[in-house]
């Protein structure tokens, strides 16, 4: 779709875009169900059963529209939620399971990495496990160490899982529709700070294929590969540098598994400079992974050492001053780009 | 055992401290002085205090996301708590934890916990230390009705039963988990579930300090003397939102007014001790005022305190890169 065509569409927040994708997919396919804590709104209280719609409101209205047999509020019981979703996926449903905060994946990790992720391969191709596991991620809300992690590197490491991480509302809708239609287990990571970001989003359904990066900006001086909530920051830096005549590719892989390494390599072959920006901790991160891919396949194109801008190797601190220092900043990204350019 | 006059004063002082502390945290949060997600304990004071009054600094508690009341009841310094909740230097975790992660090992407070169901397995560990080292200390975990549904909690119950651990499981059934009622989310009944592990489990009125206190006395007797785990399910209510700022649309018409009028554990305590001639209204009012002054002082210190130094980001962890 051309840029001008996209821009004729109504502006929606990322939250609204996801909500719309879920509505449309549930309407299209009666096998799609949603389950999780308060995804339908809550139950068993004296007042409204629609107080919530997931704690961040992404599933708001779905319970009313599709009924509580298809939008299922669960107890706080993540292992049972993901296990039921995976088993249902093996036997005819297409569940979208919400984990609220992605950090809670710790509680149910076995059901994801030993169970759902391995079925198709381990059972010799017999099994299909079409589940989408949604969770909100990332620092910036002063939510503390157990509600702020970026776990996409951990998940990307696991064969059999697909990992999706949209950076804007348009992509969120298309990626969610693809995720629901995918026959493999997909972890869909939503950064909390992106829910209110907006852009034009078509009313009609569309898919965005996995493993196809988006070029958020184009330029041949340096390649910035950024993930999730780091993409808007990378764009801001690229726009600033463009005014000085430094033009960068800003690549948003959109899915970390599968990863579009081809686009990254093609860009680095031209620019010779790579800056990876990832909010996850640095060791075994996507920043490290992309650096390794480039070192392996495009070493001779590099004209400067690769730069990684990541969170430090620490849990997420609570105090605002510390959390702000934890999250990769635009200043740090800008400095990294300039360093690859020999200090320009 | 009947409480001495001094002990009763301390009990009420602690309860009113928790109540006023939470009311003040709500105010400071609304004024923008507290970052993040904060879950208040107001309404449940009789449970935290009824339980912790029986514990020493060497006994361990494991708390939840709704941990302020447990901390205060276990003797944590309120000024250091306020600093922590505000994310300031000198907080109990030097500002790195926040409201959901207050810990104070010197007071036997093993930590608030932002993972629902995270605490009971850890408390089994504290109980295992006590048993193995022969200290006669006990561990006490707090869980909610929502938390009672986690596999981790049921696994912890079973292990405590199998190993005869000195662990008292407290279930504070405030009938709400965010906007989900226990009527919907708890299949069966919490105390019955526990009993099926062959662990003695009793239900008490969690609005009645004395009922909680008496139940805990029996529990501690049992557990400290080496007879293994025990559980108390306290029927209680939550006065405020799940978190500060929660619009609480899940509340029924007039529900909150009714709770405040008829299910206020502080009012129930006051009525009981004044009618039995154990304490006077003047004494209680004085304790209210003293607690208020201490909180005021803590808040002023908290507001004036500096943020942690940025270098703190890299301390307390093995960092290598
Ligand atoms: C593993 C996990 N799942 C979900 C949550 C989100 N959450 C935080 S508190 C809460 C409700 C807990 O209810 P309950 O145990 O009854 O305690 P209460 O809030 O009533 O004190 C939920 C769902 C969480 N923090 N951790």
TrEMBL record, chain A:
Taxonomic path: Bacteria, Pseudomonadati, Pseudomonadota, Gammaproteobacteria, Cellvibrionales
Protein name: 2-oxoisovalerate dehydrogenase subunit beta
Gene Ontology molecular-function annotations: oxidoreductase activity
Organism: Luminiphilus syltensis NOR5-1B
Role according to the record: The branched-chain alpha-keto dehydrogenase complex catalyzes the overall conversion of alpha-keto acids to acyl-CoA and CO(2). It contains multiple copies of three enzymatic components: branched-chain alpha-keto acid decarboxylase (E1), lipoamide acyltransferase (E2) and lipoamide dehydrogenase (E3).
One of the Pfam families matching this protein, by short name: Transketolase_C
The entry's keywords: Oxidoreductase, Thiamine pyrophosphate
Top-rank taxon: Bacteria
Positions of the Transketolase-like pyrimidine-binding domain: 12-197
UniProtKB/TrEMBL annotation, chain B:
Biological process according to GO: pyruvate decarboxylation to acetyl-CoA
Entry keywords, A to Z: Oxidoreductase, Thiamine pyrophosphate
Domain of life assignment: Bacteria
Cited Pfam families: E1_dh
Gene3D superfamilies: 3.40.50.970
Any one GO MF annotation of this record: pyruvate dehydrogenase (acetyl-transferring) activity
SUPFAM superfamilies per the UniProt record, alphabetical: Thiamin diphosphate-binding fold (THDP-binding)
Residue span(s) of domain Dehydrogenase E1 component: 13-310
Names of required cofactors: thiamine diphosphate
PANTHER family the UniProt entry points to: PYRUVATE DEHYDROGENASE E1 COMPONENT SUBUNIT ALPHA, PYRUVATE DEHYDROGENASE E1 COMPONENT, ALPHA SUBUNIT BACTERIAL AND ORGANELLAR
UniProt protein name: Acetoin:2,6-dichlorophenolindophenol oxidoreductase alpha subunit
């Amino acid at each position: 779709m051309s840029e001008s065509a996209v821009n004729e569409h109504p502006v929606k927040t990322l939250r609204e875009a996801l909500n719309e994708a879920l509505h449309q997919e549930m309407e299209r396919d009666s096998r799609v169900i949603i389950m999780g804590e308060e995804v339908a709104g809550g139950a068993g209280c004296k007042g409204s059963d629609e107080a919530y719609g997931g704690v961040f409101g992404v599933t708001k209205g779905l319970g009313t529209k599709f009924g509580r047999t298809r939008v299922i509020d669960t107890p706080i019981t993540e292992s049972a939620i993901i296990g039921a979703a995976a088993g249902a996926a093996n036997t005819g449903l297409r569940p979208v399971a919400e984990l609220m905060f992605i950090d809670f994946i710790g509680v149910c990790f076995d059901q994801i990495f030993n169970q759902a992720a391995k079925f198709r391969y381990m059972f010799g191709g017999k099994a299909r496990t079409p589940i989408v596991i949604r969770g909100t991620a990332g620092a910036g809300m002063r939510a503390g160490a157990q509600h702020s992690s970026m776990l996409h590197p951990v998940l990307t490491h696991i064969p059999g899982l697909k990992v999706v991480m949209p950076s804007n509302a348009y992509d969120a809708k298309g990626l969610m529709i693809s995720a629901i239609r995918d026959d493999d287990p997909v972890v869909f990571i939503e950064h909390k700070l992106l829910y209110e970001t907006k852009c034009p989003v078509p009313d009609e359904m569309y898919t965005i294929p996995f493993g196809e990066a988006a070029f958020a900006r184009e330029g041949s001086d340096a390649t910035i590969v950024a993930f999730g909530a780091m993409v808007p920051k990378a764009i801001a830096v690229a726009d600033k540098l463009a005014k000085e005549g430094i033009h960068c590719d800003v690549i948003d892989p959109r899915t970390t598994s599968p990863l579009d390494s081809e686009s990254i390599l093609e860009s680095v072959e031209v620019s010779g400079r790579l800056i990876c920006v990832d909010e996850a901790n640095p060791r075994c991160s996507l920043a490290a992974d992309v650096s390794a891919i480039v070192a392996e396949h495009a070493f001779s194109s590099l004209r400067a050492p690769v730069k990684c801008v990541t969170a430090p190797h620490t849990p997420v601190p609570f105090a605002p001053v510390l959390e702000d220092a934890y999250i990769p900043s635009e200043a740090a990204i800008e400095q990294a780009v300039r360093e690859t350019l020999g200090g320009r | 055992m009947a409480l001495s006059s001094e002990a009763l004063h301390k009990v009420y002082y602690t309860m009113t401290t928790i109540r006023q502390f939470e009311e003040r945290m709500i105010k400071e949060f609304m004024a923008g002085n507290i970052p993040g997600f904060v879950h208040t304990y107001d309404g449940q004071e009789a449970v935290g205090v009824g339980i912790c009054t029986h514990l020493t600094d060497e006994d361990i508690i494991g708390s939840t996301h709704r941990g302020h009341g447990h901390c205060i009841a276990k003797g944590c310094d309120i000024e250091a708590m306020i600093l922590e909740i505000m994310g300031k230097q000198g907080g109990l975790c030097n500002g790195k934890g926040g409201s959901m992660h207050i810990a104070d090992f010197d007071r036997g407070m093993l930590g608030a916990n932002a993972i629902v169901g995270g605490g009971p397995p850890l408390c089994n560990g504290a109980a295992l230390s006590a048993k193995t080292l022969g200290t006669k200390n006990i561990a006490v975990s707090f869980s909610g009705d929502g938390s009672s549904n986690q596999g981790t909690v049921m696994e912890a119950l079973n292990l405590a039963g199998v190993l005869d651990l000195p662990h008292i499981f407290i279930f504070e059934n405030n009938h709400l988990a965010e906007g989900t009622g226990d009527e919907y989310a708890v299949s069966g009944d919490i105390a019955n579930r526990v009993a099926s592990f062959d662990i003695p489990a009793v239900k008490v009125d969690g609005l009645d300090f004395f009922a909680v206190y008496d139940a805990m006395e029996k529990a501690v007797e049992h557990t400290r003397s080496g007879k293994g785990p025990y559980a108390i399910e306290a029927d209680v209510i939550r006065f405020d939102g799940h978190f500060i700022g929660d619009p609480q649309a899940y509340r029924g018409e007039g529900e909150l007014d009714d709770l405040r009028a008829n299910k206020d554990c502080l009012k129930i305590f006051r009525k009981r001790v004044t009618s039995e001639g154990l304490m006077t209204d003047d004494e209680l009012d004085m304790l209210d005022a003293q607690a208020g002054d201490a909180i005021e002082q803590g808040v002023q210190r908290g507001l004036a305190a500096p943020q942690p130094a940025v270098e703190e980001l890299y301390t307390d962890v093995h960092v290598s890169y």
